[in-house]
């Protein structure tokens, strides 16, 4: 009995050490809000196009029955990181042929139109979410956020923040490969 | 002195102010009170450890408006909470629900308290036990007798 008790401090140290190891893991982001949408059907929504922009609007029915997985990007003209991310998304849409949809979050139509005219418009469809209500349906905490939606309208992946930099782009492309939207050799 | 206290108090009061803006507040005070009650349990998903009533983040404002929208639409407090929980997950609730994923969280503190109390109790009880006096063996009695006799012999010399 006493002999086994002697190992108790060691056991406690191991348990606590395990917790510390988990907590100190640099890949763990304690601010990350886990999404409930992953593996769930995309939320029900229907958005009008941006006034003054030719791109058609976006609703849930556009996400169902697509040929390959699509990317849904939540952006706004007032969002500085979105500007940085824009080049990455454009390259995905134009070079890799990814189908890119946009949700223009809490933006004035004029500002959004000017922003798209200045930077270019890689989006196949853009829904204008002036009130931010659809953003809540998607469970977003801010802009930009980018989702990958499967052919049956199931949300496969969510990226919070701008997809900028080697690590983020690498992660996102890996997710696209897994969703079947990119061939493995394009990684 | 009184002046100082009044001054200090007046400096502290703004800290308790909520971020709820006038245009959000419902006309019906009962419904507004219920909205506040619901808001208290909702986490702002941007600033994480604030409830949505005390957060100035845009999403927090949207959620406040949404809570009021649901309450006006006839939802009960729990239904309004569930509506937002369905979109943002358990994470949005400041009080984590008891389910299979949170058993450790809820049960570990009382379990650890019980363990600590029982270990403490056992230790205390063990210490209180007095050592039982044992009778001397025959050989010991004999030894003592000899010792005493030797002493006596020594004294008489």
UniProtKB/TrEMBL annotation, chain A:
Q: Which GO terms describe its biological process?
A: cytochrome complex assembly
Key words of the record: Cytochrome c-type biogenesis, Disulfide bond, Redox-active center
Location(s), subcellular: Cell envelope
Assigned GO CC terms: outer membrane-bounded periplasmic space
Domain of life assignment: Bacteria
**Which Gene3D superfamilies does the protein's record reference?**
Glutaredoxin (3.40.30.10)
Q: Which InterPro entries has this protein been placed in? A: Periplasmic_diS_OxRdtase_DsbE, Redoxin, Thioredoxin-like_sf, Thioredoxin_CS, Thioredoxin_domain, Thioredoxin_ResA/DsbE_sf
Q: Key word Disulfide bond present in the record?
A: yes
Q: Which PANTHER family match?
A: THIOL:DISULFIDE INTERCHANGE PROTEIN DSBE
Q: Which NCBIfam families match?
A: dsbE (TIGR00385)
Q: Which Pfam families does the record match to this protein?
A: Redoxin (PF08534)
By sequence similarity, the record places it as follows: Belongs to the thioredoxin family. DsbE subfamily.
UniProt protein name: DsbE family thiol:disulfide interchange protein
All residue ranges annotated as the Thioredoxin domain in the record = 36-181
- Would the keyword Disulfide bond turn up in this protein's UniProt record? yes
GO function term, MF aspect, one: disulfide oxidoreductase activity
């Amino acid at each position: 009995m006493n002999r086994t008790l002697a190992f108790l401090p060691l056991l406690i140290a191991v348990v606590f050490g395990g917790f510390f190891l988990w907590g100190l893991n640099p890949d763990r982001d304690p601010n990350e809000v886990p999404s409930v949408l992953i593996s769930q059907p995309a939320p029900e929504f229907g958005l009008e196009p941006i006034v003054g922009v030719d791109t058609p609007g976006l609703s849930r029915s556009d996400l169902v029955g697509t040929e390959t997985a699509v990317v849904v990007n939540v952006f706004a003209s007032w969002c500085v990181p979105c500007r940085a991310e824009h080049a990455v998304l454009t390259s995905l849409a134009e070079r890799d042929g990814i189908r890119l949809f946009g949700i223009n979050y809490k933006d004035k139509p004029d500002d959004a139109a000017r922003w798209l005219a200045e930077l270019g418009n890689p989006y196949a469809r853009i829904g204008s979410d002036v009130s931010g209500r659809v953003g809540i349906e998607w469970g977003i905490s801010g802009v930009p956020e980018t989702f990958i939606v499967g052919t049956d309208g199931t949300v496969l992946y969510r990226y919070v923040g701008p997809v900028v930099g080697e690590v983020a782009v690498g992660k996102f492309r890996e997710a696209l490969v897994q969703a079947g939207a990119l061939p493995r050799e394009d990684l | 002195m009184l002046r100082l206290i009044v001054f200090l108090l007046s400096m502290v009061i703004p800290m308790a102010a909520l971020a709820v803006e006038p245009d959000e507040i419902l006309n019906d005070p009962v419904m507004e009170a219920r909205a506040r009650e619901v808001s208290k349990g909702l986490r702002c998903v941007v600033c994480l450890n604030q409830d949505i009533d005390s957060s100035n983040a845009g999403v927090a404002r949207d959620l406040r408006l949404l809570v009021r929208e649901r309450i006006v639409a006839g939802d009960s407090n729990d239904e309004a909470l569930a509506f937002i929980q369905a979109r943002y997950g358990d994470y949005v609730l400041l009080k984590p629900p008891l389910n299979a994923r949170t058993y450790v969280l809820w049960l570990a503190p009382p379990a650890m308290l019980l363990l600590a109390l029982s270990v403490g109790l056992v230790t205390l009880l063990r210490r209180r036990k007095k050592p039982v006096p044992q009778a001397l063996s025959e050989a010991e009695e004999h030894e003592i007798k000899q010792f005493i006799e030797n002493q006596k012999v020594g004294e008489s010399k």
